[in-house]
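Follow-up to my post from last week.
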Amino acid sequence: MATIYDVAKAAGVSPKTVSRVMNGDAPVNQATREAVQQAMAALNYVPSSAARTMRSQRSGLIGMITGAISSTHHFEDAGLPEIYLVQGAQRVIDQSNRTLLIADSGGQAERIPTLLQTFQEHRVEGILYVAEYHREVSLPAALRDRPIVLVNCFDAEDTPSVLPDDEGAQYALVDGLIRRGHHRIGYLTLPEHYVACDLRVAGYRRAHRDNGIAVDDGLVQVGALPSSTHEFDLLWDALDRILKAEPTVICCANDKMAMRVYGLLRERGFAIPQQMSVAGYDDYRMIAEHLHPGLTSAELPYAAMGARAADKLLRLMSGTTKPNEPSRELVSAPVAWRESVQTRDANVTQLNSRRKET
Amino acid sequence: MATIYDVAKAAGVSPKTVSRVMNGDAPVNQATREAVQQAMAALNYVPSSAARTMRSQRSGLIGMITGAISSTHHFEDAGLPEIYLVQGAQRVIDQSNRTLLIADSGGQAERIPTLLQTFQEHRVEGILYVAEYHREVSLPAALRDRPIVLVNCFDAEDTPSVLPDDEGAQYALVDGLIRRGHHRIGYLTLPEHYVACDLRVAGYRRAHRDNGIAVDDGLVQVGALPSSTHEFDLLWDALDRILKAEPTVICCANDKMAMRVYGLLRERGFAIPQQMSVAGYDDYRMIAEHLHPGLTSAELPYAAMGARAADKLLRLMSGTTKPNEPSRELVSAPVAWRESVQTRDANVTQLNSRRKET
DNA sequence: CGATGTCATGACATCGGTGTCATAGAACAC
DNA sequence: GTGTTCTATGACACCGATGTCATGACATCG
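User reply:
Got it. Predicted complex:
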């Protein structure tokens, strides 16, 4: 492998001049520059990041640790869309001429020390700490010694973090439903006391309040248990209770639940969306776009969160925080409206026309 | 940050001895070893991989390049389960005391040169080249200079690769259906001339042949277009044609398609699985486990492929290839049988009992 | 008892870049 | 014309490990 010395010799200059051509940190004569560049090309020269890191004490690496937190597998495949987080973060980080080093613990908490050791050996300059679902965490002490941004989680010390705007997104979804003529809106929630559950229910209620509609508590039911074993029975019963409250639309805690609700509603003879509208949460395209009819869903904006977190971390590392930058940032996304939600006027019309037909 | 010199001074030995304690490459007196270890702990010493790499000329890094190939987004979210590939590969690579460096192009082909440059600067010792779907590729010349294993793809030069056993998996699925009493098996395929399509159709046919059943060509219809724009109409028509051939079960090219077929069948009044069984492909848990009823599906074993590929690459790098190791390895996985497939005896019984009731 | 071998350790050079400082020549100011 | 600044370049040390070789203290052997 060619070194900077080989290039220097071939171009007839000193190694330091070659270095200057690469880094542009001091003026270099045009002719010299070209000679050096030719030599680099001819020799297929690629600088060694190891040597560079060693001398400059800057690795140019940013570590991302994912799947790190859930030792128990409550939400067994919640981690799947993390790839979008990775993509979002990587795009921003590449632009800053740094490299993202990813450590995925695969949910095995005992592997975290090893992964952190690797990060330290590589002298990562900053860390993105990713949780599988919106929650509070407490950071291992080993992580506190360098810039860090929490993603999808927050801690008691107010460490900088990037979070999904659960309250706002559920508000936007429910507000949109109301504008589409729905006044009795069922809601199958996540298990209680999950951060995302509390926030979204708050958004659900605020949307009702702002529109002057009272919430019928019978319309809000827990649709999932933390342990997913008996999830199905629970959903069946919860749906039963909600249907007694006579909703025109059912909001589900996530797209997976909505997928189940499609099946359950149809078993009971409901046509979707003619006789019952359905909405999800997460906007997992794999589900929402391919369900029939297409599922209306509030997006969980993973790519944007990854990008925002990377951006925040880079600013933290360079010390250029924005004025008034909050330690916790919320990322919003628009609701994806698809065919699973019918506007009530059309709905009423269609029901009427059906009655005529019968 | 503490260096090996600091540790040496604190322990009253030479740096080289500290190095020996870390690497165990020469005998060290027990007492000395303990003194060094204490000093390392006290100083919070973490070796610098940059320095180590530079001196030893071994980076200990393996590069994985994903999302690299599809510049067009035919299968827009096919890349999602790649996280399983990453996990599978990372588990194996960690065990060999190496580190996985991941570059995700996010489907933007123009970013690949940059990513490769990064790999070269970090002196990765081997590369895992991941395609988004089973296909033939031709490798950029820049990649040929170091050990490489193709994952989910293969090339004309017979570069070592790890592939899903599409033929075998579809065979196992269809064979299982036949054993469950289904003799008229509909199949909504992938677009024609895709590698996975041809192989799976071959598996479908072989299963029929081995069981002495003739294939009715009306039962096999293309269910998806390469460009997904008109996918839906196509599926509607394809399903129509298949239903005319009176199947008792419909195999879908993937779980997303199966999800659509659930909706389409129910619109036509079919109960699943009582009046029509359905099977998918991929076994995306997010879909298959949460559809109602649960979807029977042939697994696309991403985690196992990642692990196998990493293993193959490590052997390639160390020169310890197994005797008779084929350049292309197929990875198999069992079919996940769930409620969407009903065994035909039960089916007949149930239909009879219904008739009695009516 | 001298030769040989093994164990435990250290001195020193080296990997490939970059930071610091020095310097030669050209341009500019007074 | 002399002093000052700027441009362009090179010499040299150094970042933190490890490979090579040397060495002293013992143990073993014939």
